[in-house]
Each structure stands twice: as structure tokens, then as C-alpha cells.
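Researcher: Here's the sequence for the chain we discussed earlier.
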Amino acid sequence: MICDRLKAEGFNLVVCAETIFKWIYSSAWAIAEKLYQYLRQGKKHRTKHKGRSAQRSKIPNRVSIHERVLLVDKKSRIGNWEEDSIVYTHKHAINTVNERVNSLAAYTKLT
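Model: Thanks. This is the structure I predict for it:
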């Protein structure tokens, strides 16, 4: 909204949303005027966004996909399965198993 307002008032200034948030939460004047209350969430402090958690837990003794047998890459024999887990928020997860030659797929809900 701020960027649109700047355009409407004739400014040729392009401001990133992150820059606006940083200014609202770090500027002494913006803090004194409590400008955070006009934001969509209206929170006094910013909430940290959690990044990817893939680096947090690693599978012990895992083998890289680049080190697999070359016969598997050719997709010439049936029975080479790939497995993957998809983890969503609030402890929801799906386990997928895919067969490489004929593209069979099986999905299992994990709790």
C-alpha cells in the first residue's frame, strides 16, 4: 500500500516491502509513533520466519543419489524404488514411494 501511495502522489521512488518493515521496526520516530499498529498484523515485534529445516536432521549413513548404481539411472529394470518424505506444518507428513521404470507411486500419511 505504501508503494502504491508513493506512485499516486507522484514519487518515482520504488521501495521494497522489507525496507519498509525494517524502517518501521528500527526507526526511533516510527517506534515512538507506534507505526507498527497500522500494519496488517499490528504486532509490536516482528515474528521470526523459520527457514528450511532440512539441515537440522540428517539421516545417519545416508548415501548420496549421485553415488547410486549406473544401472538404476538407465531405468532398464523394474524394482528400483525411490522414497521421499514431505513434512508440512503442524506435524503433518506424507511418505512417497516411486518406482522409476513404470512410474508407480504410493503415498502414505504419516502422523
